[in-house]
Design a protein that fits this description.
The chain is 39% helix and 9% strand. It has 383 residues and is of the alpha+beta class. The protein has a four-stranded antiparallel β-sheet, with helices on both faces. The chain is elongated, with a radius of gyration of 23 Å. The model has no long low-confidence stretch (mean pLDDT 93).
């Protein structure tokens, strides 16, 4: 019988565990990638993600995470949705959740299988491992490209010729010295579909993203009030954004996610904005249990819901937004004010403003009342 190499055996085991793509990379990154990271941080395009700065030294070189590592096993799990990933966009009373967040939290699903793979490697070969899934300062996409899984497209996400843009990434660092896979080359060509699809113009140039304008960043990472100029552009996107991913022509080769836990729950396909706006903290945690959405917390999420209501409305939108004026969270109250400035006529908004601002103590919420009054009067024709 032919002798199978450790590399081939590891790949076969990973595929059997549900991973769709497997490659092998060195524990180092090209100096150009390090330079790009430094420039990105210097320009402030990471927004409030300060952890990118504080852990930049470990992010520049994978070896800094674990000096004993000799190879990186890069893996990807396909979460391609069925057709209609964007069907819930811009529908009155309906919120849009990013496809990746509609199923089980990918951190749990992918890491569970990585641990199984890691244990098998340690039991089968003389070596040690450490596993990572988006929870450590690993530049996952450059590592994945070096391992041949795909290439970083113009939207900065990994693109695969077999799976398009819908891939979760993970890594197994190992002390085994494994031969490297051929690095994947760029196949974007002159296409700019992803860039043109961005609702907020978050791409100042191909292969560069300004997180401060990205809806995924704004709805997930950004903790305070969202820039007023960007709110109307968010539509009904209440957690993440799929526009640039869905626009990629390479998706035509992708097959629907084979791992059932990564497929979306039916109730997340067209969630009711009024229902979501009324969730208490406990109800929020229960409704979104075992999903990535839970980690941002109820207040930030309901802020997003209020912005969506202001953009797409609903039969009972005014009533729902008025209820949130009594919310304990200033973040939610402020977003509710903005929604009402979009839903009410000038006179009705002004009457409500006079009533509510007297009891409001939070400076950010008071600013929302004043800004809302100024904006609504500016667009109202004079008699």
């Amino acid at each position: 019988m032919p002798v199978t190499s450790p590399r081939d055996r590891i790949r076969d085991k990973a595929l059997a565990l549900g991973f769709d793509v497997v490659g092998f990379a060195p524990v180092s990154l090209d100096t150009r990638i390090q330079s790009n990271l430094d420039g990105y941080l210097a320009d402030g395009m990471h927004g409030e993600m300060d952890w990118m700065v504080t852990k930049a030294d470990r992010r520049r070189q994978p070896s800094a995470l674990w000096p004993d590592a000799r190879s990186v096993i890069a893996l990807a799990m396909n979460y391609t949705p069925p057709e209609g990933a964007l069907d819930s966009l811009d529908r009155s009373g309906i919120g849009h959740l990013s496809v990746y967040a509609r199923g089980r939290d990918y951190h749990d699903v992918v890491k569970k299988q990585l641990k199984v793979l890691g244990r098998w490697i340690c039991e089968t070969f003389p070596g040690e491992v450490k596993v990572f899934v988006d929870t450590a300062p690993v530049m996952e996409k450059p590592v994945a490209q070096q391992a041949g899984l795909g290439w970083q497209g113009k939207h900065t996400n990994l693109v695969s010729r077999e799976h398009g843009s819908w891939l979760f990434l993970g890594e197994v660092f190992t002390t085994l010295d494994l031969a490297e896979s051929p690095t994947e080359t760029d196949h974007c060509g002159s296409c700019r579909s992803c860039l043109d699809a961005c609702p907020t113009g978050a791409f100042p140039a191909p292969y560069k993203i300004d997180a401060r304008r990205c809806i995924s960043y704004l709805t997930i990472e950004h903790k305070g009030p969202i820039d007023r100029d960007l709110r109307p552009l968010m539509g009904n996107r209440i957690y993440g954004c799929d526009d640039c991913l869905a626009a990629c022509p390479w998706n035509k080769f992708a097959q629907t996610a084979p791992v059932s836990e990564l497929r979306g729950r039916p109730e997340f396909a067209t969630p009711d904005l009024a229902y979501l706006a009324r969730l208490s903290d406990a109800e929020f945690r229960t409704f979104f249990s075992r999903t990535a959405i839970k980690r941002i917390g109820r207040d930030r999420f309901v802020r997003n819901v209020m912005i969506a209501l202001g953009n797409v409305g609903a039969e009972n939108a005014v009533m729902v937004a008025k209820e949130r004026l009594e919310d304990e969270s200033p973040l939610v109250r402020g977003a509710a004010v903005w929604a009402l400035s979009r839903l009410l006529e000038t006179a009705a908004f002004e009457k409500l403003r006079q009533k509510e601002r007297a009891a409001e103590l939070d400076p950010d919420v008071l600013k929302e009342w004043e800004s809302g009054a100024a904006e609504i009067s500016a667009v109202t024709p004079s008699v």
